[in-house]
Structures
1.
Amino acid sequence: MGVAKYIKNEKDAIKEVIYQSGIKVKPSYGPEDLEKAGFKYEKDLGAPGEYPFTRSIHPQSYRSRAWTTRQYTGFGTPEETNERFKLMISNGQTGLNVAFDLPTQMGYDSDHPLAQGEVGRVGMAIDSLRDFEAAFKGIPLDRIGSGLTINAVATIMMAMYQAAAEKFGYSKNQISTTPQNDILKEMIGRGAWIFPVEHGVRLVGDSIEYAVKELPKSNPVSICGYHIRESGATPAQEIAYAFEIAKAYIENVVQRGIKPEDFVGRFSFNLNVYGNLWEQIAKFRAARKLWAKMLKEEYGVKDNKNLFLRGLFGGGGSGLTKEQPENNIMRGAYYALGAALSGAQTTALCSFDEAYTIPTPRSALLSLRTLEILMDEVGLRDTVDPLAGSYFIETLTLEMENKIIEEMKEVEKWGGMVKSISNGFVQRKVSRQAYEFEKGLQSGEYRKVGVVPVSEKGTDKDPGSEPAAVELHEYNEAWAEKSIANLKELRRTRNGKDVAECLKGLEKAAKGSENVMPHLVKCCHAYATVGEMAGVFRQVFGEWKEPDFY
Amino acid sequence: MAINKKIRILIAKPGLDGHDKGAKVVALALRDAGMEVIYSGLHQTLDQIIQSATQEAVDVIGLSIMSGAHLPICQKLKAMMQEKGLVHTKLTVGGVIPHQDIPKLQEIGVAAVFPGGTSFEDIIKGINSLFD
Amino acid sequence: MLDINDIISGDQNTGARMIRLIEDRDPSAHEVLKAIYPHSGRAFIIGITGSPGVGKSTLIDALIAEFRRLDKKIGIIAVDPSSPISGGAILGDRLRMQRHAADPNVFIRSMASRGQKGGLSRAAKDAVLVLDAMGYHIIIIETAGAGQTEVDVAGIAHSVGIVTIPGTGDGIQAIKAGILETGDVFILNKCDRPDADAAEFELNMMISMRPASPGSWKAVVVKTRALDGTGVKELAQVFLSHYAFLNQEGRLEKKKKEIELRYFQGLVTDLVLEKTMAALETSKAYREALQKIELNGTDPLSLAETVMGGITISNFNSP
């Protein structure tokens, strides 16, 4: 039953409930539970918009503004992406969220042998500033902010964004970009890493330092508990690992003589809504409080607005099933309800058919409508943090806080996040849990409606189902051909001496401790390619070797 | 000494896609089913996969592909296996595989296809049955 | 039967299948081994051992790169434990050496312990023999130094490297006295850790306390950081200088004879065991003894004496 563990007696009555994070839930809660947990209103809750922000980071929350939603775009060529961007802006979008193809994410040019068959497949293909110029042509970069979904070479894309803006006549003070730039989570979950851990973290540090000094409106890093959760982490681990990752970045930047107060306000988070409803709500409330407490107590951050846990709570991909896909519409609605009851500022939902096919425009629209129904129809804007004071929710929030602290302590015992990832401790723990959970799902210990456990296959409990029709994006060879032709032309016509000189400067910075960002901006302006810049890093830093995972 | 045979399998992630949860989870399941699993790691070229399969003398190559490029990858790898004399090795594939592609994969010479959602039990049975 | 010419000419596919027969204990392996034996004996064999987590595979990955720079062909046998419960294994050492996968002059082979210590040492030794006959200049056997994966590396390798890490002293304490005596090279990996100097001092102390005879090799401590390759060049040189040392005054020949002798003794032990057990298992006395145990009759100690007491070994000539 569900993603929590339910122990039942022979009459199907629930005897015990254990959430994924390891918290046992009682049949009912009362004032004595709050007392036992040491709950104090001022210390643990406070008014919305007041420290420790358990209830909300804004005093009015959805009363002043409903949540914002995001759409992820970018495919094929920069020109096609540009058209899509313009359409979205004319439809009222105030921010773009850019997807890159795998060769770009992995720092390869379109003509690299490993790029074969991948150019433009899952996002737009970027080889040089020319492509950025084409992608952002005519976009008012002083008004429209851009999220860049890229990590290992996020520094290169940030530099590219600045260089393109400068070409169009904007100053770097005017532009606002949010690269994902969370390399440590790639090493736990999504796999788009290139360089060894410590070099990866150094690049994140360079980009934060540069943003502090040169890009006043940009947010250099978005920490993704999301993918860690998708890889098999519990909700408590999702937050704990995200915070430990944040600490690794903070410590890198602090070593450069920059005060946390000057940059932590620019961190944002991307967190998952998949799981048991109550556990999710408690997770977000505990996370908001812990983040503020940690920054205040450990890092001496004083300004309230720098203590906010900002970000996107959404997605829920792991919860969706291929079986009976329409059920995912309902699942999405309940995930979004959880996000709303948690005070999410920004959200996005997976489309119901995403588990097995390309989301259709209709399914994408359904996700949007689901979010609108919650805000405009059901009444979730009425009052801030409506569950506050619930014996159950407040007890659970405190227990969740303790679980998160426990998981953070374990990482610290391992020597912090950088060491834990280098040694594979986190990956091992997460993949083992993913395996155990999958086994539980197949045996019927955990339940998702529509998924038939192995023991019931072919029995009268198995409704049987036609395999869902899976469609994949058609790959268009023309994208690669065009990119490669452009690249050839570029290499012929650009000033090769300039490029070589800039790359030399980049190499020197990479080898030493100088910030690579100004050099990357220069390289971009000289039309050095992504593959050339990443190539310098590959040569200086080497490539990461994954630790074992079992 | 008595014969002590085990099924050896290379779980491989070809290409640039880094979603490895499925590959890792299946590797653990096969290990627990008594097989010897060699895990290639991410971002493998087909040359690396062939070389690993050769040196490790595996009975099975199990590809994990999420990118949608399973048809060209399997076709190319199968040809390379022929060329390198890996005649004893079976090719299997799992991941995001549309149902309608299964016959095409079989035609290429893929011995078993395990689309996302296949239970561990069915994967283990499917692999064991290649050696009955 | 596999074509031995394919093995000798270095065909990786055939060599790999031969190693497969060895680890599967396929009876046909024996004849092939006999046939390729005369073609072996040219390689320099290095054993690398140490507790799990000290970074052996990463270190070997860096060593491969270093030996490749010297244009040596490298073979690796990496041994990992089998699960005692399922008998399966995930063989992960290769993961850290994978950048060499497409290099035709590198051959990496993972082996699972398959639950048998003695048998594994034999299989690892036979696999080294295959790589040797295939023409690899340097063969490295990687094995964890404790528990069920333990391979008698000293009985196979010409040069034994023991990997340890600085820390709470655990690393060094973990080196069992027996292993310490067999080490020719002590590798202090992760040498950027704070107490590396203390660990180095301690290691040198232990080495200096080993009984040394005139003209014997003095073990060396090398500090490395496998992750970025620090010290690996020196390490490769130390192994090569140990090899050069062995090549003087007939030391290597002596060592090879010792290894061959141990190999022979192991083979005989295996054969005796195999043949005796085969004969025994069909004997009446043995079957009766099994029944008696089943019926809770006689104690197993007396039964073993009774069964073995009936066996006479007559066809050996005593002096």
2.
Amino acid sequence: MDTTTPAPADPRAHLTSPATRAVLRVQHRVLDAVREHLGGRGFTEMLPPVIGPVTDPGARGAKQVDVDYYGHRYKLMTSAILYKQASLTAFDRIFCIAPNVRLEPLETSSTSRHLAEFHQIDVEVAGASRDDATRVAEDLVVHVVRRVVEHCVAELGVLGRDPDAFTDLVSGRGFERRTHATAVADLHGFGHDQNPDAEIDWTGEALLSSKSSSPFFVTDYPKGSRGFYDRENPANPGRLLNFDLLAPEGYGELCSGSEREHEYAAIVARMRETGENPAKYAWYLKMVREGVPSSAGFGIGLERLVRYLCGLDSVWQASAFPKIPGVVSP
Amino acid sequence: MTALRAGTFPEQAVRERARTGAAAAFPSLSDYGSALLGEPVGPAPADALDAARLVPPVFMPLRLEKLIDLAREPLHGDVDLATTVGGFTARLPLYLSAFGSTRAVGTDLGLAAAAQAGALGIPMVVGENVVPVDGYTGERSLLARISAYADHAPDGAGGVVVQQSTEDADAEVWNRVYSDPATRSLLDSGRLGFELKVGQGAKPGLGGLTVVDGDAADRLAGQYALEPLGDRVLRSASPGTFTEEILRQQVRLMRNNYPRARVWVKLPPGRDVAAAADVAWQAGADAVTVDGAEGGSGWAPTASLAGVGLPLAECLRRIGSPCGCLLVSGRVWEGLRAVKCLAAGATATGLGRAALLAVDENPRSGLTRLVEAMALELRLLISALGKYHPSALSTEDLWSPAGWSVPASSMVAG
């Protein structure tokens, strides 16, 4: 893949190009398939807030965007996680197509898979375990890919994407799983210096992804690599009951998810472990203290999924109005 | 020179060094050839570090090594002071300690100290609460201090370390600095770091305290605890809650979120300082800074200043042989105390009040001259011990009337 594909200089040229039109049609089909699949399984689609007094602090090194809300400092959402947990007091199974804004570190401008503004297909299920969540994620991805392969032959043709790339994925064999510790050992085996206590770094993620022909889960990330809401495994302290789903062919992470912390004291302690000041989470902690359901869920990066489906060099090509970190654009 | 005062500090001696540089490392030159010199008679030692003496040996195998290396007798000028300080290449085993947002640090002093520290090639720490109180951009801001440093730093030397405390997390100081194009050259050259502030010497167990006027108090309301203090307002930040697990995970999260930045942890002089330092190093901190109870430039309750926290000497004793980079501060302003700290296990010593007084005395070159005098003393004293790099120093170089006892578990074999 070409990691140096420049951003479009002109929105008109980008929007009117046959490639962009094909990509946006695939995106439309993906959203249809998501709604078809989850709607048919008892999920209620909700509309997530865009601003709030606090948002997900879990994004690696990314700056949040402040909004002056009648004299109060509000944030644009970096993810819907807090509202997803809260929404389970209304429905047991919810999803949303959530817009997120993260002012990512400038180094991410060259990863080909970061946008400062993007969307997540966010799913949360009350009473679910991590295994339940990975099953939902896998079924959803397989369904979406099948629908795209069935209905977007012409678009994939325009983009030069061979539908056979998804043969393994739709075969029904199931996605492989490996733990974070195994992934780290694999990377060390490839000669990559991966910190065992941290998130898989961008280079390591691309390396693992390039060695696979089908999406695969990485599970059990170490505490200290994720936000306070990923549940610590009581049977394996220091490890989280969470997962990432990585696309093959070097496309990297598509999705992050976890079983959630939902008990008040555990959440407060985990907030401190992640350097957070609990005072600013007042509304969320009040809800948690009064009780929110246990749950598991995930968020799939919509543009990343579309990039993988379309075989694009860079994730910005999967956005009508892309915002590459640090690049001033419409 | 402003109205800056430091009554509990050897202020006049520091100011003299800021004026005259290396000459101040000796008795008055006008006395040369006429005065009969000897051990100065002064006030009783202020603490165990002052009471300790450096004790050169007669037999010096490391001097022989240096002689063989040089093919001539070594002199003090052969001492190499370049040191790795918390992951940065430093030209001297020194760093500029954090100054907070207290009023004693006016625009000129903070910027002057930053520019000179940059030119000297020693790391600089920028204190917490600078952003919430003075802002991110503007004259007194965090970015102004960072720019003043970066504009003067030689290639490949020094580094800037930005503190963040619990309340600063709300302002996302680290995220902002890490994503800012203005700091990219520092980041790209491996010269940006973040320091987790767990506590400080002047008020162990308490968070940051500043006295603000009514307007500033209105701005800070909702973010900090505020209470009237005379005709002003006392602004208190929380010290933050730490357990072993919280400290371990916060350090790991810093390494996870800012993989290209160095990670420092600042500890207060607590009774479990050795255990806390170990947790930080084990979690991957590039440096642990320990502020002795005698340290600190900031506002603090008189009671805390008078009787809370371990003196630096006791912190050094409890830590023993550090298993990572240990940086210490606390009334260090000249080479003798600095070399004692290095011999007791530190990799470098911080200049806090001394640096402020020096730039107050001379904003253009006060800190440069103070450091010039220290560098000469460091070279003279380290060579007197028969050693030629700070890392060769050890507790064998120290003698104290009370004995310089080191925990048995921390003794280095041989």
